């Protein structure tokens, strides 16, 4: 890996780490900053892809609504590199906070 790629990778990973801290620190009472359910699912899918890579769990029953929605969000990210998922997570957070 070249020095440019390595420093770019480090920058993306650092931004991802900071983005996670921001998302986790949004107080529940700050409703205007809370992501929508769709946004939360997208963040969940991107997070799982960034941290664990391609989905590696069985599809839950659609009767288990929450578990199925989370599975589906992660499944949609299948094939994306963890680094790309980190970058998209950061970009999605920036977009959400600037709306």
UniProtKB/TrEMBL annotation:
GO terms for molecular function: fatty-acyl-CoA binding. It comes from Rhizopus azygosporus (Rhizopus microsporus var. azygosporus). Signal peptide: none annotated. This is ACB domain-containing protein. Keywords: Lipid-binding. InterPro entries: Acyl-CoA-binding_protein, Acyl-CoA-binding_sf, FERM/acyl-CoA-bd_prot_sf. Residues 12-99 form the ACB domain. Pfam families: ACBP (PF00887). It comes from the Eukaryota. GO terms for biological process: fatty acid metabolic process.
